[in-house]
Amino acid sequence: MMAEFEMTDLEKLSHFLVLEFNQVQKRMLMHQSKYAQEILKRFGMMNCNYASTPVEPRLKLEKDPEEELYDATEFRKLIGSLRYLCNSRLDICFAVSLISRFMKKPRVSHMQAAKRVLRFVKGTIDSGVLFPFEVESGKLDMFGYTNSNWKRDPKQKKSTGGYLFMYYDAPVAWSSRKQEVVALSTCEAEYVAASLGACQVITAK
After folding, report:
1. Where are the alpha helices (DSSP H) in the chain?
2. DSSP state letter for 92
3. How far apart are CA 110 and CA 21, in angstroms?
């Protein structure tokens, strides 16, 4: 291409749209450490204590009309930043999906849950996705997982479903979102999650 077009060799890929790339042995690490630090600094969480999980176990956030409201603009800025961080951090996708449901009228508890995600990011700031440089020829090593949490939403009674697909131990597709239908049993919620995962595979072919 350089023989036909005027081009500049930028050498090895290191940055692309706030994504960072580092070579680790025979693999490529895609991460957003610098962007994560900017988020922590922007929202005054640089010196916070880190959390071991992005969300408290069995946490159920609700729209309590009696709870104190939080600044919606500030809350939306934080959620938008976290959603972009999900491009390389699938470990926070569920938590971000959960708190994103309250952007219209966020409460203090919703902001506390969002800040816990930041505390988790602080302790895992160098985490990312590790891709292999080479794969065995003629061998397709791809598998996926699906799961759901029945009636996660206490108001609408809708479940939360998600999927994760791995290609040679590297995550290539993931999602965590509220299901559009109301499942009448755990089995049905799992079936809906599996069908969404199957749709992802068919679309990706």
Report:
1. 33-42, 72-85, 93-99, 108-123, 186-204
2. G
3. 33
Residues 115, 9 contacting (CB under 8 angstroms) = no
| Cα–Cα dist 150/190, whole Å | 8
Burial of 188 (0-12, 13-18, 19+ CB in 10 A): middle
- Identify whether the C-beta of residue 147 lies closer than 8 Å to the C-beta of residue 162: yes
For 143, phi and psi rounded to 5 degrees?
-150, 165
* Positions in the chain whose pLDDT score sits under 70: 9-10, 135-140, 204-205
Residue 137: is it exposed, middle or buried by C-beta count within 10 angstroms (0-12/13-18/19+)? exposed
Beta-sheet strand order (sheet of 142-149): 142-149, 160-167, 170-178
Q: How far is the C-alpha of 180 from the C-alpha of 177, rounded, in Å? A: 9
N- to C-terminal Cα separation, the chain: 28
* SS3 call for 183: coil
Does the predicted TM-score (pTM) go above 0.90? no
What type of residue sits at position 81?
Answer: S
**CA–CA gap between residue 33 and residue 20 (Å, rounded):** 8
Write down the domain spans for the chain. Answer: 13-134, 141-205
C-alpha to C-alpha distance for 176 and 161, rounded to whole angstroms: 6
pLDDT tens column, 13-47: 777 788 888 887 778 888 999 999 999 999 999 99
The radius of gyration computed from the CA coordinates of the chain, to the nearest angstrom, equals 20
